[in-house]
Design a protein that fits this description.
This protein is mainly beta and 158 residues long. The protein has one domain: Nucleoside Triphosphate Pyrophosphohydrolase, CATH 3.90.79.10. It contains two helices and ten strands. The strands form two sheets. Strands 1, 2, 5, 6, 7 and 10 form a six-stranded mixed sheet that branches. The longest helix is centred in the middle third of the chain and has 13 residues. InterPro entries: NUDIX_hydrolase-like_dom_sf (IPR015797), NUDIX_hydrolase_CS (IPR020084), NUDIX_hydrolase_dom (IPR000086).
């Protein structure tokens, strides 16, 4: 059971995301019906630690094995999405893999089908994308050498 609960107008969510960089690019993804992009990952399940959740999410969404590295950010993220006020706790880890099969120049869908669209984007061009949470556009340019706590408040993203 995912760690998420809803009220009439609010949602609490516990999420984990992977920072996978290669050759000055980072992998981002989005739901095909949304305009905003994010780092790949997903919800943490009850009784699951954040690293195990991240490994599971990459396996489910991209059918690949990853190694979880440095925990870069712990984020208290507040944003509006489709009429709900979200309060999200997120852990952002560096990830790596020896699998190079997904290093593609064009956007692609994962094996789960066409719901999610993935894309490798040069880090210096992230400002051209609606990447959320918004601190990632600058934060990904120079990853911290230690874990940093961030409180992020983004406006309504539809």
């Amino acid at each position: 059971m995912d760690i998420v609960f809803k009220t009439d107008t609010s949602v609490f969510n516990y999420r984990v995301a992977g920072i996978w960089t290669q050759n000055g690019q980072v992998l981002i993804h989005k739901d095909v019906n949304d305009t905003n992009w994010s780092l790949p990952g997903g919800r943490v399940a009850l009784g699951e630690d954040s690293q195990v959740a991240l490994i599971r999410e990459f396996q489910e969404e991209l059918t690949m094995e990853i190694e979880v590295g440095q925990l870069c950010w712990i984020v208290e993220n507040f944003f509006d999405y489709k009429g709900d006020a979200f309060h999200e706790i997120s852990f952002y880890y560096e990830v790596s893999t020896s699998d190079s099969s997904l290093l593609q120049s064009e956007a692609f869908h994962g094996p789960e089908g066409e719901r999610l669209l993935y894309k490798w984007v040069p880090i210096e061009k992230l400002s051209e994308y609606e990447l959320l949470p918004s601190f990632l556009k600058s934060g990904l340019k120079a990853l911290p050498g230690r874990t940093v706590h961030i409180i992020n408040r983004d406006g309504d993203d539809k």
